[in-house]
Design brief:
Helix content is about 15%, strand content about 30%. The protein is an alpha/beta fold and about 160 residues long. The protein has a six-stranded mixed sheet with strand order 3-5-7-10-11-9, with no helix packed on it. Strand 10 (about 140-145) and strand 11 form a beta hairpin.
């Protein structure tokens, strides 16, 4: 009987430990989802988080599909690509940089059709250098952020 009770207690303990070590699944709805980061497996009083694309290695993007003239897109902090597939040439597009980009962050724009006029605008406290004023069909254009001078520069 003692052996049976001891075995039962061990089984209960093992079940309890296994339940504590189970990692819960978290549904991710978009690239702005922040993931808790536990450096070297040691929890600390201050929670550190990272955007989903940083943790997964999958680049965040937005797809405007069939955009229309006078479109506007503001990059999120975890977004690297903005693409669209309009049915024809568009004019008067506006792109706004992310509000809190990281050093070396890239923002790229791509359209399957010509964009005859694009206004690429820096977010508050940022500047732009070499931003495109139009978009050539099927030709991506990117900007890269330099945190030292809070500026975006055109990049390959």
């Amino acid at each position: 009987m003692k052996k049976l009770l001891a075995f039962g207690a061990l089984a209960l303990l093992a079940t309890s430990v296994a339940a504590q070590n189970t990692v819960p699944s978290v549904p991710f709805s978009d690239v702005n989802t922040l993931i808790p980061v536990v450096p070297q497996g040691a929890a600390s009083a201050k929670t550190v988080t990272a955007p989903l694309p940083v943790v997964t290695g999958v680049h965040g993007y937005a797809n405007a599909l069939a955009a229309v003239t006078a479109w506007t897109h503001t990059f999120s902090n975890a977004e690297e690509y903005f693409m669209m597939q309009p049915s024809g040439t568009l004019a008067n597009g506006t792109i706004i940089t992310a509000p809190s980009p990281g050093d070396g962050q890239r923002e790229c724009f791509f359209s399957t059709q010509t964009q005859s006029s694009i206004t690429w605008t820096a977010n508050t406290g940022q500047t732009l250098s070499g931003a495109p004023t139009a978009g050539v069909a099927n030709t991506p254009v990117c900007m890269i952020y330099d945190k030292a001078d809070a500026a975006w520069y055109r990049s390959p």
